[in-house]
Automatic annotation (TrEMBL):
GO terms for molecular function: alpha-L-fucosidase activity. Its EC number is 3.2.1.51. This is alpha-L-fucosidase. SUPFAM superfamilies: (Trans)glycosidases, Galactose-binding domain-like. It comes from Aestuariibaculum sediminum. Keywords: Glycosidase, Hydrolase, Signal.
Length: 539
């Protein structure tokens, strides 16, 4: 069991009563044949349980101050002065990541390993007098720190003269075999979706080459992966096990299905990126999403971006809107020209991990739980910190109450489905019991592997979670309640052309109070709930 799951395990400090209740108002069980629900493979399930992994973009682009090269950049430019893959991997490990993916070859075609199929690699660079193998050093570091290793291999190659011709497929297959044969276990192979465009392609003239949708021999590439790395997850291409989330900003849709239709069944009236971001409720295959986003504006290191590292509140939003919305987070780091992660980046990443540890430090569902209803043994399985056990909501409208025995303060709710049997929940409602009445706290749509709701602090002695709508009988593997500390950061105040004032707080679970007469705001001041019109200054 990983460290995070350990944090979710029940403590034995206070008495908690969990009461299963029956509500009969509006539950809509779709009646879908359970046998037809798409389900994850073992490797897809294990992949999603990693939750957060790291991307590392480091190559010749690091030394040209570019994001994309054209394939004509001299290998002589690649010369990190203090390369330390151990530093990269250790920082990722300390930040709670479970794996790291390295850009072994980006679109420019430059290889970070001494490939025997091209001269455009580290073997013709001044780094270690051409004797270095960066992929080997990276693999060794992953092994040392017990981190899973992934590799990015761009199908597009702006350096190779055969790109766009049938012969290139053999070249790409050979490089894929090199990477999957010589460096140990690879948990994910990343094929980028950018393919074809401007480059030199082994000539002295910048020009454009395009390919059609059937150019790559995907079936042959898939055979290579399955033969050499049968447990490897494939990202990209027609053979993918997982999907891109549809943006590089770091968020999955609030409604987020791990199921998708095949591409020929997509709704032609909805942008493809939007469909990837939400998924398809009626999807016919299990196709979970990966949310890739960079700590900086770019993917590679640029000195001009040293002051543009994402803030702590922004990184927290990214976590809650990716992992907390049933996706896996792939967070990018950009080593500098030395070959080391810049100090400010590493400090921010570790600050992010410390804050997440605080957010999920204490599950308020603690103590010896008791159930005043049927299915006592089964329901305990939904709060035991074990993803392999679950509560089966076999009532017409499943709901359950969490009784604390005393009033508690909380602002986070974590729910997980037992997705080994498919994703089921379409909508749920959360209520709290306070002042002798039930109040609405929050609503959500999908749950999937993990759903984390953030809301303003609530004081309540009981929580009621109602499964309003589900594709099949819901299976809840985990429920947890937390009171995360506020991350205080100055709100941003904006006024649009119509004069509407908008106050934006980095912490979405906090409250904002303001005054318009110049006095100091306090808890008795007007609470900000929506943009408003005001002439003149305000506080």
């Amino acid at each position: 069991m990983n460290r995070k799951n350990k944090r979710l395990k029940l403590k034995s400090e206070t008495l908690l009563t969990i009461l299963l209740t029956l509500c009969v108002n509006s539950f809509n069980l779709q009646g879908q044949n359970i046998q037809n629900l798409p389900k994850p493979s073992i490797k897809q399930l294990q992949w999603q349980q990693m939750e957060t992994i790291a991307f590392v973009h480091f190559s010749i682009n690091t030394f040209t101050d570019k994001e994309w090269g054209y394939g004509n950049e001299s290998p002589e430019l690649f010369n990190p002065t203090n390369l330390d893959c151990r530093q990269w991997v250790k920082i990722c490990k300390d930040a709670g990541m479970k794996g790291v993916i390295l850009t072994a070859k980006h679109h420019d075609g430059f290889c970070l390993w001494p490939s025997k199929y091209t001269e455009y690699s580290v073997k013709n660079s001044p780094w270690k007098n051409g004797k270095g193998d960066l992929v080997r050093e990276f693999a060794d570091a992953c092994k040392e720190f017990d981190m899973k290793m992934g590799l990015y291999l761009s199908p597009w190659d702006c350096n190779h003269p055969d790109y766009g011709k049938p012969e290139y497929n053999e070249y790409f297959k050979n490089q894929l075999e090199e990477l999957l044969s010589n460096y140990g276990e690879v948990f994910e192979i990343w094929f980028d979706g950018a393919n074809g465009g401007r480059g030199y392609y082994g000539t002295d003239k910048l020009h454009t080459r395009t390919i059609d949708k059937d150019y790559y021999n995907w079936s042959e590439f898939e055979s290579v992966v399955k033969a050499l790395q049968p447990n490897c997850i494939i990202h990209g291409g027609k053979i993918a096990d997982i999907r891109w989330v549809g943006n590089e900003e770091g968020f999955a849709g609030e409604t987020h299905w791990s199921t998708m239709l095949t591409s020929d069944k997509f709704d032609k009236n909805i942008p493809v990126k939007n469909q990837l971001n939400v998924g398809h409720e009626n999807g016919t295959r299990w196709f979970p999403s990966e949310t890739d986003v960079s700590m900086r504006p770019g993917w590679y290191y640029h000195n001009s971006e040293n002051h543009k590292i994402k803030s702590l509140p922004k990184l927290l939003d990214i976590y809650y809107e990716s992992v907390g919305r049933n996706s896996l987070l792939l967070l990018n780091l950009s080593p500098d020209k030395r070959g080391r992660i810049f100090t400010a980046d590493s400090l921010r990443l570790l600050e992010w991990r410390r804050q997440l540890d605080l957010d999920f430090n204490e599950n308020l569902i603690d103590g010896n739980a008791s159930l005043i209803a049927d299915n006592k043994e089964i329901f305990k399985n939904a709060s035991d910190g074990n993803f392999q056990t679950y509560w089966k909501g076999d009532l017409e409208q499943p709901s359950f109450d969490i009784e604390f025995g005393e009033e508690k303060t909380f602002n986070r709710l974590l729910l997980q489905e037992f997705i080994a049997e498919g994703q089921r929940v379409k909508h749920f409602t959360v209520k709290g019991y306070t002042d002798n009445k039930w109040i609405n706290i929050a609503q959500g749509t999908t749950i999937g592997y993990k759903r984390i709701l953030r809301f303003s602090e609530v004081n309540a002695s009981k929580i009621r979670i109602i499964i309003d709508e589900s594709l099949a009988v819901p299976l809840i593997s985990e429920v947890a309640v937390y009171n995360a500390p506020l991350v205080l950061s100055a709100p941003k105040i904006e006024r649009n052309q119509s004069g509407l004032v908008n106050i934006i707080s980095p912490d979405k679970s906090g409250k904002i109070f303001y005054t318009v007469d110049g006095s100091e705001p306090n808890n008795n001041s007007k609470e900000y709930t929506q943009p408003f019109l005001h002439d003149g200054d305000f506080t």
